[in-house]
């Protein structure tokens, strides 16, 4: 077990222990089980992390040149994030843990049958958010099944990384360290951005802000530090993702319009089935255009639901506003962060009005969230 180094690491563990005691003493039976898996799961991740220099040395000793190279690359990205993007210069992403599983957590999203409104869950510290995370896929699936019995539609998404908002030094993980170079940079920048600005009970603000940071940050990384091959590969990858996102958000818009009509529920269900059939057909056409590239096949592994599309849209709503704000700040990251904090501190209605003044909320953008919460990457 790698112990947290310094006062900050121990303070974080003590804070988590104190919080868990309060939470568990006031929660019901079902909530106790959920919080226990959350606390135990996170501490289990932290316990497996080792300093990046040690992890690189271990990889080399094991003749794992690929892992050693990826960890070294991530280390350079981490330095770049603080030096060039003015993101926090702390212990986050300066350690590595191999969890021996494909995702660190699985998030459950839920909506009514004929609505795109995501259900929200409220927690200590982070406030109310539009998903619920589990460290074991079976637990996530079991919870989703219960929601389905209650009449909700659900989407279970594997998540490669998450942010503890600076309370812990989040480690690099095997779940994302092998991503293509541009994707790896994007994810690190995104999760670090959550440590800069976080607004309780406003998922759209938080994810849009982090997505705007990641998008601008990865462009700078590609221009300054990436190889030509990495730039070319990422451009192709990102172009396909933009096309796929446009397909998803166009489908989401059609469903929103359908649910707002005066049709009866039976007619809405019929229209919904047609729209989802069109989505599958549209994806088949994209695959053909891409020469058979099947990178998004896994997105269709589960039956399609409103929750799939609502999860995607939530994380993009205010990206154009934050992108415009960064331009207004002439690319000065410190000014940009200060302005984002100022807007984030406003009451909810004033905060939304301020973002609308910067740029209208988007239904289609050219970026995706790196955090993987909607598992579209």
Automatic annotation (TrEMBL):
Q: Could you say which enzyme class this protein belongs to?
A: hydrolase
Query: What span is annotated as the signal peptide, if there is one?
Result: 1-27
Query: What's the EC number here?
Result: 3.4.11.-
List, alphabetically, the PROSITE patterns matched. PROKAR_LIPOPROTEIN
The species is: Cupriavidus taiwanensis (strain DSM 17343 / BCRC 17206 / CCUG 44338 / CIP 107171 / LMG 19424 / R1)
**Which keywords belong to this entry?**
Aminopeptidase, Hydrolase, Membrane, Protease, Signal, Transmembrane
Lineage top rank: taxon: Bacteria
What Gene Ontology molecular-function terms does this entry list? aminopeptidase activity
**Name this protein carries in UniProt:** Zinc_binding aminopeptidase putative transmembrane protein
InterPro entries found in the cross-reference section:
Aminopept
Which Pfam family would be a valid example here? Answer: Aminopep
């Amino acid at each position: 077990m790698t112990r947290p180094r310094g006062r900050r690491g121990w303070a974080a563990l003590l804070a988590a222990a104190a919080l868990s005691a309060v939470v568990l003493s006031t929660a019901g039976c079902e909530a106790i089980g959920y919080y226990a898996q959350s606390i135990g799961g996170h501490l289990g991740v932290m316990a497996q992390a080792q300093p990046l220099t040690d992890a690189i040395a271990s990889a080399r000793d094991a003749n794992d040149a690929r892992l050693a190279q990826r960890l070294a690359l991530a280390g350079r990205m981490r330095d770049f994030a603080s030096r060039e993007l003015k993101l926090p210069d702390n212990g986050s992403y300066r350690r590595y843990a191999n969890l021996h599983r494909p995702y660190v957590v699985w998030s459950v999203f839920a909506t009514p049958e004929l609505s795109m409104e995501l259900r929200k869950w409220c927690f200590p510290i982070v406030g109310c958010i539009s998903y619920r995370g589990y460290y074991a896929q079976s637990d996530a699936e079991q919870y989703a099944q219960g929601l389905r019995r209650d009449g909700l539609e659900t989407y279970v998404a594997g998540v490669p990384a998450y942010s503890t908002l600076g309370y812990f030094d989040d480690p690099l993980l095997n779940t994302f360290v092998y991503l293509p170079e541009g994707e790896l940079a994007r994810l690190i920048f995104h999760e670090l951005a959550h440590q800069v600005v976080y607004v309780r009970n406003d998922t759209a603000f938080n994810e849009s802000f982090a997505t705007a940071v990641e998008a601008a940050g990865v462009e700078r990384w590609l221009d300054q530090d990436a190889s030509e091959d990495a730039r070319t590969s990422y451009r192709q990858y990102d172009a396909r993702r933009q096309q796929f996102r446009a397909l998803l958000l166009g489908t989401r818009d059609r469903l929103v319009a359908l649910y707002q009509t005066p049709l009866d529920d039976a007619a809405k269900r019929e229209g919904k089935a047609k729209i989802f059939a069109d989505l599958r057909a549209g994806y088949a056409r994209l695959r053909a255009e891409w020469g058979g590239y099947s990178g998004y096949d896994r997105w269709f592994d589960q039956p399609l639901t409103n929750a799939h599309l609502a999860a995607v849209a939530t994380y993009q709503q205010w990206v154009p506003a934050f992108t415009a704000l960064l331009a207004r700040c002439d690319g000065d990251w410190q000014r940009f962060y200060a302005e984002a904090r100022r807007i984030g501190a406003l009451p909810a209605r004033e905060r939304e009005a301020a973002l609308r003044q910067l740029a209208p909320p988007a239904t289609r953008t050219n970026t995706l969230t790196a955090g993987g919460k909607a598992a579209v990457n």
